[in-house]
Amino acid sequence: MIEDWRLIKFKKPYFYFGNEFNSIHKKEKNALKVALVYPDTYEVGMSSYGFRLLYHLGNEIEGVVVERAFAPLPDLEVYLTETTTPLFSLESRTPLNEFDFVAFSVQTGLDYTNILNILDLSHIPLHAEERLYPIVFMGGTSAYNPEPLVPFFDFFVVGEGEFTFKRILELGKEIRDKETLLKEISKLNGLYVPKYFEFIEDGLFFVEKTGKKIVKDVVRDFEHAYFPTKPIVPLGSIVMDKAYVELFRGCTHGCRFCEAGIVYRPIRERSIDTVERHAYEVLKNTGYEEITFLSLSSNDYSDMDGLIGLMHKLIKDFNVSISLPSLRIDKFTKKLGEAILEERVHTLTFAIEAATDRLRNVINKGITNEMILDVVKTATSIGFHTLKFYFIIGLPTEEEKDILAITELTKEMLKVGTSAKNFKRPFEIHLSINPFMPQPNTPLQWASFEDIAELEEKKKIILKRIPGRHVKVDFSDFKMSALEVILDRGDRRLSKVIERAFKLGARFDAWSDYFNDKIWEKAFLDEGVDKTIYLKEIPISQKLPWEHISPGVSKTFLLSEYKKALSALQTPDCRNSECAGCGINTSLFCPIFERKF
User: Fold this and answer.
1) Looking at the whole model, is its pTM more than 0.85?
2) Angle, helices 494-503/478-488, rounded to nearest 10 degrees
3) Is 469 helix (H, G, I), strand (E, B) or coil?
4) Which single residue of 115, 140, 378, 569 could bond 564 by disulfide (Cβ 3.0 to 4.6 Å)?
5) pLDDT tens-digit map of 462-488
């Protein structure tokens, strides 16, 4: 076991210490030992609400011990390699290869090489067929297209993990024979065991042959679903160092580029009484000075008056800061803005995606320039001095005038904002501009990723015309985004590319400091895989690599929405209109459908 005094010499040693406030150290004889792994650093993994939830949920099961592990920074990796010391868990410093289960929570394809590095540093064979134990599995949003990772995992958990994760651990306690266990696990909702499926080459991709489908698992009774009231408080800073409380899951606005809006359906809310109880418990048990109410669109919560009242109470009782992520332009009110200002927050963030009404109709955003300017006027009139806006470039049907409109709309917003004169410091606009990334299980999954040279030209146009004063502009790395699209839309052939990139030294591909496009170029070349296949437009007649994994929304609906996108036609939110026919009510359930019909 590696001692504390050795860890002190490494960068950010608190990443590896463990022993944080509210961490759990169980010592049960003959317990099922589970390593819960996030394939990024401690500061990123411990910012994941889902990761924390599963840690505490698993440890509430008698006869089960769940411990955490994360991707080590390069300096510790060098030490582990040179000394042949296996990567270890935080709680007991046990090597990961001594656990019964190694469970990964994976949210992006850019973490795939980290997964292989963690297995390798743990002295665990990379390929599932080469090992008996530990059993290695993964969940998270990346499980909605697990095909590029199939050779490395025994099974995948598709959907929300509360019930499924618990059931897997209970079965693991009862059944110690691997083959028997996999057969039983394959009977659970949302469990994909690749060895029980058959794949063939069909057109562009390798696809499932038999037509069998795995439908995601979801929490049906969200009001009473598990909530960790005593989450871990890290020893040092992390990316999102705050308390979390979930308002609701799901979204029915139907933005056509948004994977989360599909995979987290249906909408399920917690009552304001439950939200309040969770908020008070988690703040009392942690001492956090900031709390976030989690959802995909916070101001869609059905009891906003109750939520605003709760915000006032929490500020009074705990003197905390409160954040509401993912605010929608069309639901922003002066009352909500004043409540946010009370928390000493003077910046608001909105995802408006495009600068013309037509292009927003393509992606089904459902807002207008008039609405945007009204919100700028309202926000600045009550005291917000900084507004941040997200834009997407490279969207299907985009024209040069749509790009020019970003600069013109920014000028209009700046003019409206500076006219308020209701704050001491100058009004500022921050723009975050990202390329369109076609994602599996979205209406735009068939669309292409725009050529990087074209994206660079659009970037030049924007930077040339954007106002220089009081406007900050950030662009994401286009090559990194392209790689993420390739990995997210890939098939089994990519597994050998991922493994080759790992062996060539690829690590932390989501980090600009570590991302190396040349490594990936060589990996594709070495393995003879044409990466452009995964970036081009996909014919709608082509069977998709992820088609056997169902988010509960039908392919028929996605295709219908794709065709409407190309015609710039909108689909209204089904909470405020008739059922849109997404299919979630027949494949799983839909509280909105049941309430209306």
Assistant:
1) yes
2) 130
3) coil
4) 569
5) 999 998 889 999 999 999 999 999 999
